């Protein structure tokens, strides 16, 4: 199964407010647990007499008031990176917090306030999104809000707008979206493109004229904390023509619709793996404008992340806990070997059976298990649904998976429909 849901639990507190407390501030204390990703707070007021009570709403953390909405809201959300307007996102440190009320108007008979708090815990789970797209902040036609709206409609969890050689989009991200907005910039040169992910301002000057200049720009982005991605390195029009032995974290193996440029990167990556290199790969739509084939989250990058935050998602990619599908609703593949998953290195002596789990398959799909020994299994799917395969990993240095499919609306050619990062074996 694809683990996509958070673990949560709910606590309810009831407080009787007397008329004598009118015009005073009241705290309803609660204990913030450890490892909380987001909270939702709601409240109801029940008047004891005929007059209506007016109770305002806010919250404090261990040190300060973290938000106030007065009588304007009946509930709010507050997370590590996003919050309802009027409330501050940020750390949700364990300890004694309190919901804060202003007893603005209390009937003679008093009233009862019931506060309900749902704690959403940091839960390792699969999140999906797009790590490469553009907007009108460079040569795209979509506004930032349009990009976010489309991604939300697709059910995605994260996105990054990697506009060419500019960071203005990172300062104008929509604040009300449920998506994690990963800061990005596409370092665009005349001889290759690279994405800088995770920091708002990775570079002061993008201009380069030599390999030394490129190395210096990459070093600056690295110093500022950016993850570095080599984009569409074997593209027909803008391949990576600088030295491949530059500082980088990941390679964009799948850019837009699956074509020969991606196939060339796939072959190159297989050779890198055979040489003993452990290299994580990702995908990105590179969408700029409405197009019949280049669309948001096509391909869709799935990340097994510790939390729905920028750091949680990027750390998951660092670990190689990544699988790619041609679309958010396309086939999903994951590999496990005991407690280890894609991106992990299984210690020497612990190599066992690798299990492939594939979901959302269609009859006619071709599922492949590929290792350091080459193509190990090639299965044609007979029925829509799921499939499990196993492979004894003894003697293998890595194992990865692919799903191929025919898309009749394009042509009769088999194209990549899903691709996993490998499990490695020491």
Q: How would you summarize what this structure contains?
A:
This protein is mostly beta strands. It has helices spanning 144-153, 211-223, 260-274, 310-318, and strands at 8-17, 25-32, 36-47, 54-60, 65-70, 75-79, 95-105, 111-121, 125-133, 158-161, 180-181, 184-189, 192-197, 227-230, 250-255, 280-284, 300-305, 322-325, 332-337, 340-341, 345-346, 353-361, 366-371, 374-380, 385-392, 398-406, 414-420, 423-425.
Write up this protein:
The chain has 426 residues and is mostly beta strands. The protein folds into two domains: 8-121, Jelly Rolls; 125-425, Metal-dependent hydrolases (TIM Barrel). The protein is built from four helices and 28 strands. It has helices at 144-153, 211-223, 260-274, 310-318, and strands at residues 8-17, 25-32, 36-47, 54-60, 65-70, 75-79, 95-105, 111-121, 125-133, 158-161, 180-181, 184-189, 192-197, 227-230, 250-255, 280-284, 300-305, 322-325, 332-337, 340-341, 345-346, 353-361, 366-371, 374-380, 385-392, 398-406, 414-420, 423-425. Strand 23 and strand 24 (374-380) form a beta hairpin. The two termini are 27 Å apart.
The rounded Rg comes to 25 Å
CATH superfamily of the largest domain: Metal-dependent hydrolases
CATH architecture of the largest domain: Alpha-Beta Barrel
Name the shape in a single word. globular
Q: Give a quick account of the main beta sheet: strands, pairing sense, barrel closure.
A: 11 strands, mixed
Average of pLDDT = 97
CATH class of the largest domain: Alpha Beta
Strand content: 35-45%
Helix content: 10-25%
InterPro entries: PHP_domain (IPR052018), Pol/His_phosphatase_N (IPR003141), Pol/histidinol_Pase-like (IPR016195)
Protein name: CehA/McbA family metallohydrolase
């Amino acid at each position: 199964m694809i683990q996509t849901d958070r673990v949560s639990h709910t606590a309810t507190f009831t407080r009787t407010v007397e008329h004598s407390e009118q015009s005073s501030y009241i705290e309803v204390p609660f204990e913030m647990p450890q490892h909380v990703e987001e909270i939702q707070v709601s409240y109801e007021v029940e008047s004891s007499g005929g007059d209506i009570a007016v109770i305002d709403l806010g919250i404090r953390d261990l040190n300060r008031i973290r938000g106030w909405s007065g009588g304007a809201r009946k509930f709010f959300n507050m997370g590590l990176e996003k919050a309802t307007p009027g409330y501050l996102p940020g750390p949700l440190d364990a300890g004694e917090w309190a919901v804060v009320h202003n007893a603005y108007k209390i009937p003679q008979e008093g009233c009862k306030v019931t506060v309900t708090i749902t704690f959403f815990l940091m839960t390792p789970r699969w999140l999906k999104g797009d790590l490469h797209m553009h907007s009108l902040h460079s040569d795209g036609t979509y506004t930032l809000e349009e990009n976010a709206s489309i991604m939300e409609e697709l059910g995605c969890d994260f996105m990054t707008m990697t506009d060419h050689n500019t960071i203005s989009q990172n300062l104008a991200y929509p604040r009300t979206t449920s998506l994690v907005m990963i800061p990005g910039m596409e370092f665009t040169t005349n001889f290759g493109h690279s994405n800088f992910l995770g920091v708002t301002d990775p570079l002061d000057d993008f201009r380069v004229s030599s390999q030394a200049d490129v190395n210096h720009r990459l070093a600056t982005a690295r110093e500022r904390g950016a993850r570095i991605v080599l984009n569409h390195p074997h593209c027909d029009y803008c391949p990576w023509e600088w030295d491949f032995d530059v500082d980088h974290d990941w390679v964009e193996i799948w850019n837009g619709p699956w074509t020969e440029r991606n196939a060339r990167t796939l072959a190159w990556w297989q050779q890198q793996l055979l040489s003993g290199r452990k290299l994580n790969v990702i995908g990105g739509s590179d969408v700029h404008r409405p197009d019949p084939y280049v669309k948001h989250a096509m391909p869709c990058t799935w990340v097994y992340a510790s939390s729905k935050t920028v750091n949680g998602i990027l750390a998951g990619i660092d670990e190689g806990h990544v699988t790619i599908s041609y679309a958010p609703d396309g086939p999903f593949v994951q590999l496990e070997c005991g407690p280890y998953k894609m991106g992990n290195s299984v210690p020497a002596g612990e190599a066992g059976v690798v299990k492939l789990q594939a979901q959302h398959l269609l009859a006619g799909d071709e599922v492949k298990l590929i290792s350091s020994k080459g193509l190990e299994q090639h299965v044609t799917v007979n029925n829509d649904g799921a499939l499990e395969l196993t492979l004894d990993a003894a003697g293998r240095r890595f194992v990865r998976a692919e799903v191929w499919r025919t898309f009749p609306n394009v042509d009769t050619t088999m194209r990549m429909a899903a691709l996993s990062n490998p499990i490695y074996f020491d």
